[in-house]
Design brief:
mainly alpha
Length: 128
Amino acid sequence: MSAPGEWRHDPATWSDDGHPQGPPGSGTADEVHEVDRERAAARIRVALDDGVLTVQQAGQRLSEVYRARSRARLDRLTEDLDPPEPAADDRLDRATLLRAGLRVLFLAALAALLLTALLHGIGPIDRF
């Protein structure tokens, strides 16, 4: 039997990849924190809400998330849930934004000119 606070090499301290992990809190790079689990669980819940996963699939993945002992395992459970990258056609480039801004500016100037003309009573009829 080990002393209190002493770390034992038992199967519960092995990573999902079959490699031994350090003692809890040893700060290994692949250590899973509760925040990591919650992020993965949130992504699974969003996928369930979006209809990407069935209730059964989401339940299985959530139970795996809370059993995972490595970030690599969490990544494998959620890697197919990332939203697809937007297509190049969906992105706005600078030229499109500039044209849209100039249109808005032109329409605002035209509206200001017409409003000024109406408020001052200047119109084609007053010139005759």
